[in-house]
Design brief:
The complex is a heterodimer of chains A (144) and B (283). Chain A has 2 helices and 9 strands, in the order βββββββββαα. Chain A has 144 residues and is α+β, with helices and mostly antiparallel strands. With 283 residues, chain B is an alpha/beta fold. The chains are: A alpha+beta (144), B alpha/beta (283).
Chain lengths: 144, 283
Amino acid sequence: MQFELLTLTGTKFTGEVSEVILTTPNGQIGILPHHEPLTAVVKAGSVVVREKGGKQTIFAAFGGLLEVTEAGTRVLADEAEHEDSLIQAEIQVALAEAEELKTKAGDKHELARAQALVDRQTVRLGVAQMRRRTHRPERQTPPE
Amino acid sequence: MAALQGIKRRIKSVRNTRQITKAMQMVEASKLRRAQLAALGPQAYMVAAKELLARLAGGSAAKLHPWFIPRPVNQDLTIVIAADRGMAGAYNSNVLKALGRHLHETNGSKHMGISVGKRAALQLARASDINEVATFGIDRGDPDSAIARPVLEESIQLYNSGEVDAVYLIYTHFISTVHYEVITKQLLPVTADEMTATESELEPEADELLEFAARRVLEAEVLQAVLEARASENASRMLSMKNATDNAEDLISDLTLAFNNARQTSITQEIAEISAGAEAITE
């Protein structure tokens, strides 16, 4: 089935895939070819793309929409990062910084901004950790 | 001699102007490159997002949601996106002209306006037939959804509270460096595309999903409009500065010619005087 991962900064993935696994508010779902038409909210987290040859790519997506039609499957995310750009050590530093910002936040806006940063880094960290684990073939549940 | 001095001074002043306009042209050219890339980024996303929204709007769930149901318009809201600064040729006035046309076309209802960019804010403050409710800067901040979100939030609030019954967006669509087009489009209520309407399963509940999806797509639309407006503004300013530079160059070459003429005249005159004097002595 045709799969596209589109973001505001460009197209992150497009091609034939055999399965896509992502998280909706109702839980994690896997989409196989000939899935019934579906429109759903995608929660921030991992988007696992399995290509025909068995190659697997993981993206960290920060919320968006999923649309399954007969023509194919599309994910519209604000942003998505390829697993290669997620380096665990760097993310941990960034997460620590974000948490420090949160404790220092003076007003509501600063707190909200810091919280958004923390959430974002947590998602990135989750995907980076998941990537290490998924070098083994079995499927893993992404951390919340 | 006095004439020569005057021309010299003018050449110098035009040269200074040329230097400034040339520098501004370069600055805008580099800004344009960045703005162009930024405006191209969301294009694939936008096409898909609009299709998605049109499909949703055609579905049965949308028939019950206020964002998708047209209602009689007592008051409308127009979001106008123009530049923060001038010196961009006809860019700002083209946008504001389109606003005038739009207000004229919808003169059955009262108008509210949200401005993005100082030039738009000035115009809304001046115009008597439109009531300005909010104003935002366009140059501030990175080109991400942080620019679009507050604009859309404000509009959605007004629409939900029933104060306005339609939301329009006026911006410039960036086509190429020399070409942009002012576009007026309706954001709310979302217009359905019956052709592509398909029923699909919705998750979570229809209401929640519709609102989430519409908000997201509209936000992307406003963001795209801001990005394209920026690119058109930069392109327009770059062109007008290029014209100004060319004009300055023409003027400089005219003045240089005039200067050389005047200098030659004065030299000829001096020689004539000297040779006349010399002749008078020898005689």
